[in-house]
Amino acid sequence: MTDLSRIFESLPVSEESSSGQATFHALPASSNEQVLIAKTTQGRACLLVNTAFSVEPSPPPLRLENLTVQHNIEGRVRTNTGTTEGTFSLIALRTSDKLLVNMFLRFVVAFAEHLPKRPTASDVSLELQRLVTLLQSLRKPATKTIQGLWAELLLIASRDKPARWINGWHTDPMGLHDFVFGDTRVEVKSTMAHERTHRFSHDQLSTPTGVELYIASILVERSNMGVSLFDLADRIHQKVLPEESLLLDTIIATTLGNDFAKATDIKFEPHRSTDSLLFFPLSIVPRLSEELPARLMDVTYTVRLNDSDGMRSLSIE
């Protein structure tokens, strides 16, 4: 359970007076104290954003399957420091589904950090599009295994400049390789086997002239005492700016899709995996070098890599 989840669980539900004005029991969702986490009168998760006056027209309310948004709500907020009144944008979940609640709480931090220190309702409306996209992505199939995504996050977490790796991560959803840095590509492969055996598509190992490809090979081991991919993401968050944090969480959500709920419980031993990380240039990776016949498609094969051919580091930072 994340710190924000614990905060949310500890909050009482909001109250509504006879005049219709709501009193919310809330606490800051991040360092931006204008953004508060609270519970609705039904006990559902909601976010309150204390908005500044603006001459711009107020954005229209939004009602989606699992989310409602209202602007210019007059209300009272009680926090640890006292009671204040203000004008708020109210973003509320319409469900108590654990998966959606966890997703909502996980991503409101990046949402809050990305807002101005004194946001207007228009600022909130614009930034909400990202949150809506994240929630909608949970209904789609996963595009990668949890193990594969865990290995990619371990690589990012182990780098001296994780922001550089986040900005090169899955830049093209249809791309063949996990990371793109100009003319350098990095493809991450993980295995639970004792040998470095990895499966590749032929296209992954066929790069254009002038492009350098490296395989980041990681040995993984399931462990109940290990860390989940969300634990790795939390470590990365501490090293990067809000913009990279939001990008990181967006890629995680869109990659996991409807496997998001499972990912919390699947853990791997991080130290062994970090120690096992080796980079292999394409030149030493066994592969079919000739062009395939025109009507032969989707060729894949398993390759065994030798530790003695690998490099401990990769100079792209």
Explained architecture:
The chain has 317 residues and is an alpha+beta fold. The chain has 2 domains: 3-137, no CATH class; 146-309, no CATH class. The protein has 8 helices and 15 strands. It has helices at 3-10, 98-114, 121-137, 146-157, 162-167, 229-237, 242-256, 270-276; strands at residues 15-16, 22-25, 27-28, 35-39, 45-50, 62-63, 67-79, 82-93, 179-181, 184-191, 196-201, 212-219, 222-227, 278-281, 300-305. Strand 3 (27-28) and strand 4 (35-39) form a beta hairpin. The chain is elongated, with a radius of gyration of 23 Å. The two termini are 33 Å apart.
Helix content, binned percent: 25-40%
Content of β-strand: 25-35%
Order of helices and strands: HEEEEEEEEHHHHEEEEEHHHEE
Q: How far apart are the termini?
A: 33 Å
What's the helix count? 8
- The assigned structural class equals alpha+beta
Number of E-state strands: 15
Rounded to the nearest angstrom, the radius of gyration is 23 Å
Largest sheet: 8 strands, mixed
Mean pLDDT: 89
User: Unreliable runs, pLDDT <50, ≥5 residues?
Assistant: none
Number of domains: 2
Backbone shape:
elongated
Q: What's the arrangement of secondary structure elements?
A:
Blueprint: H1 3-10, E1 15-16, E2 22-25, E3 27-28, E4 35-39, E5 45-50, E6 62-63, E7 67-79, E8 82-93, H2 98-114, H3 121-137, H4 146-157, H5 162-167, E9 179-181, E10 184-191, E11 196-201, E12 212-219, E13 222-227, H6 229-237, H7 242-256, H8 270-276, E14 278-281, E15 300-305
Parallel strand pairs: 2-7, 10-12
Antiparallel strand pairs: 1-2, 3-4, 4-5, 5-8, 6-7, 7-8, 9-10, 11-15, 12-14
